[in-house]
Amino acid sequence: MKKIVVLTGAGMSAESGINTFRDAGGLWEQHRVQDVATPEGWHRNPQLVLDFYNERRKQLLAAKPNAGHIALAELEKQYDIRIITQNVDNLHEQAGSSHIIHLHGELMKVRSSGPGEEVFKLTPDNYETHLGDKCPKGYQLRPHIVWFGEAVPEIEQAIGLVNIADILVIIGTSMQVYPAAGLINYAKPGIPIYLIDPQDVNVPTKNILVIKKRASEGMKELKEILDCPAT
Ligand code: OAD
User: Fold this and answer.
1) Mean pLDDT, residues 47-74 taken together
2) Distance CA 3, CA 227 (A)
3) I need a surface site. Which of 79, 111, 132, 176 has the fewest CB within 10 A?
4) How does pLDDT run across 5-51, given as a tens digit for each residue?
């Protein structure tokens, strides 16, 4: 089976009703990155950060995978699909995809802010975290999110995957955040690279087939290109 590595960003989940970050009206117009997505913001005002992620979880719990997520999961019938997502939602999982790396963490998990950084799963009926919610060792729980300025623990595994991809697909990311945006540079020379996004996206290669559509329609077109039977 050919290996397709798929890099997804916020645009993948836009049609599920989850806000992107940098589009007009996106999350970074409504919140300051420094306040809610950095270790400094966390130290300054942890309650604000917890509230921000509680709200993100509430939004996620009201969302469902869209046709793009589902089409990607269905591609597993013909291809070995590996997803590297910058998204912290779990919509790829809900759609049925099997192999997913969450480069920037996961909304439905929290972790200890103490040494060891033990991770805990949240549940839909108990998804909020508040100041005073502690791990068994007594450390405050924080979102299991990779904030700006923090290491991206899964990046080496992601590079390894892109390295052995037969086909690379990029969906719904503005390619502005590193190291994720740099992954494209690890693709083997000459492999087909597809980019699905309704807007123009700057990528450091010309050898790319752009499908200028939303994720759902773009995935439909990609399936036709890859010659997969319609479902
Ligand atoms: P951005 O908000 O930067 O980019 C979203 C991309 O999705 C843009 O290129 C849009 O044109 C595209 N888009 C919008 N609607 C779409 C649709 N229906 N179908 C397909 N594409 C669509 O989001 P990311 O690139 O994912 O990190 O942002 C990367 C990281 O920056 C995020 O993981 C987050 C953020 O700060 C952290 O919070 C750590």
Assistant:
1) 97
2) 15
3) 132
4) 999 999 999 999 999 999 988 999 899 999 999 999 999 999 999 99
Q: What is the spatial order of strands in the sheet that 3-8 belongs to?
A: 100-102, 80-85, 3-8, 167-171, 193-196, 209-211
What CATH number did the domain enclosing 9 receive?
Answer: 3.40.50.1220
Q: Is the pTM of this model over 0.90?
A: yes
Q: Looking at the structure, tell me whether residues 121 and 180 fall in a common domain.
A: no
Residue 104 is a catalytic residue: yes
Best residue among 174, 211, 222 to mutate for probing ligand 1's pocket (most ligand atoms within 8 Å of CB) is 174
Q: Which domain holds residue 121?
A: 21-62+110-145
Structural domains of the chain, count: 2
Strand ranges in the chain using DSSP code E only, listed in sequence order: 3-8, 80-85, 100-102, 105-112, 119-121, 141-145, 167-171, 193-196, 209-211
Q: Is 155 in the pocket of ligand 1 (CB under 6 A)?
A: no
